[in-house]
Design brief:
Elements (H helix, E strand, L loop, with lengths): L9 H8 L10 E5 L6 H9 L6 E6 L3 H9 L6 E6 L4 H5 L4 E4 L15 H18 L4 E4 L4 H15 L7 E3 L2 H15 L10 E3 L6 E3 L12 H12 L1 H9 L7 H18 L5 E8 L7 E9 L2 E5 L7 H27 L1
Parallel strand pairs: 1-2, 1-4, 2-3, 4-5, 5-6
Antiparallel strand pairs: 7-8, 9-10, 10-11
The structure holds 1,4-dihydronicotinamide adenine dinucleotide (NAI).
The site of 1,4-dihydronicotinamide adenine dinucleotide has 32 residues, from helix 5.
InterPro entries: L-lactate/malate_DH, Lactate/malate_DH_C, Lactate/malate_DH_N, Lactate_DH/Glyco_Ohase_4_C, Malate_DH_AS, Malate_DH_type1, NAD(P)-bd_dom_sf
GO molecular function: L-malate dehydrogenase (NAD+) activity
Organism: Trapa natans
């Protein structure tokens, strides 16, 4: 990923010599849901990112405290907190990247789809505001079910006449982060060297890690690959159960969200060869949205990369996931057009 092989990138360069700002463009990032379990550590990580010059932290409650706290960190960006709908416009105005971790998380026994009724409405209203106040921003959708919230966002933007398919991203980076960690652990490979593409969607069997394309190669058995695949698909549930009612992944998600936003910023800034997996509008399968490797550039998506060669097991997984992912996409589209 761009994060691991970024030795020559602007951000590594700046990190090494301290937080200089000249020659790095001004970039505003807004986090919606910034006082939440993901929002707070994500806000912290974005405050540490030298590519950010302004950081807007928005939530329906709690942002003055989070913003005051984070603003004392001596890194580049200016931080401001915004609370309540009447301040949402100000939070969004001028944003280059908007990250959305707003909404309720899972409790044990819940699927991501069980969150639909609450989160669909939240995402719809936030996206309506985005189309009004920062229609050109790259949108990083974290709120679940991502398989449906991304199509909802697309429909809202289409209705507003602001939809640009190059600028809407479902954040699936945590699936990649998990696949890398689990693969490295099983294969006894240094994790920093590992790359694993994860395609499909972001829920259960729609999460399809392509371990046949993982690098470096390892000699894991078919059974081990099946176990790794299941663990990646159930990684979120592993955390939900361990937290026993106190929510879902927040810290690893904040890390993953920060990596994805950093990749978006690098793309905007013209860094070459920035590639991350993301759930985007796509024509690489029959489905209108699909996660795969995506090349990021000055306008967002520069190229949606194909699936590459699949093993028989992966091809089977792909066939199995299509109907579920299709239904989740359609559910989102239907919601956006009915409500
Ligand atoms: P949380 O409940 O700790 O935080 C959510 C925050 O959103 C709260 O601060 C709440 O006040 C805020 N919020 C609610 N309505 C809002 C609105 N209309 N505008 C702005 N903010 C609003 O939940 P957590 O753990 O931070 O999870 C957030 C979302 O991220 C959930 O939907 C969860 O399922 C999803 N998630 C996604 C992952 C992914 O891989 N894409 C991984 C983990 C969680």
């Amino acid at each position: 990923s761009s994060f691991t092989n970024s030795t020559s990138s602007i951000s590594t360069h700046l990190t090494r010599r301290g937080y200089g700002t000249e020659s790095v463009p001004e970039r505003k990032v807004a986090v919606l849901g910034a006082a939440g379990g993901i929002g707070q550590p994500l806000a912290l990580l974005m405050k540490l990112n030298p590519l950010v010059s302004r950081l807007a932290l928005y939530d329906i409650a709690g942002t003055p405290g989070v913003a005051a706290d984070i603003s004392h960190i001596n890194s580049r960006s200016e931080v401001a907190g915004y609370m309540g709908e009447e301040q949402l416009g100000q939070a969004l105005e001028g944003s280059d990247v908007v990250i959305i971790p707003a909404g309720v998380p899972r409790k044990p026994g819940m699927t991501r789809d069980d969150l639909f009724n609450i989160n669909a409405g939240i995402v719809k209203s936030l996206c309506t505001a985005i189309s009004k106040y920062c229609p050109n921003a790259l949108v990083n959708m974290i709120s679940n079910p991502v398989n449906s919230t991304v199509p909802i966002a697309a429909e809202v933007f289409k209705k507003a006449g602001t939809y640009d398919e190059k600028k809407l991203f479902g954040v699936t980076t945590l699936d990649v982060v998990r696949a890398k960690t689990f693969y490295a652990g099983k294969g006894k490979i240094p994790v920093a060297d590992v790359n694993v593409p994860v395609v499909g969607g972001h829920a259960g069997i729609t999460i399809l890690p392509l371990f046949s394309q993982a690098t470096p190669k390892s000699n894991l058995s078919d059974e081990e690959i099946v176990a790794l695949t299941k663990r990646t698909q159930d990684g979120g549930t592993e955390v939900v159960e361990a937290k026993a009612g106190k929510g879902s992944a927040t810290l690893s998600m904040a890390y993953a969200g920060a990596i994805f936003a950093d990749a978006c910023l690098k793309g905007l800034n013209g860094v070459s060869d920035v590639v991350e997996c993301s759930f985007v509008q796509s024509s690489i399968t029959e489905l209108p949205f699909f996660a795969s490797k995506v090349k990021l550039g000055k306008n967002g998506v520069e190229e949606v990369l194909g699936l590459g060669p699949l093993s028989d097991y992966e091809r089977q997984g792909l066939e199995l996931l299509i109907p579920e992912l299709k239904a989740s996409i359609e559910k989102g589209v239907k919601f956006a057009n009915q409500n």
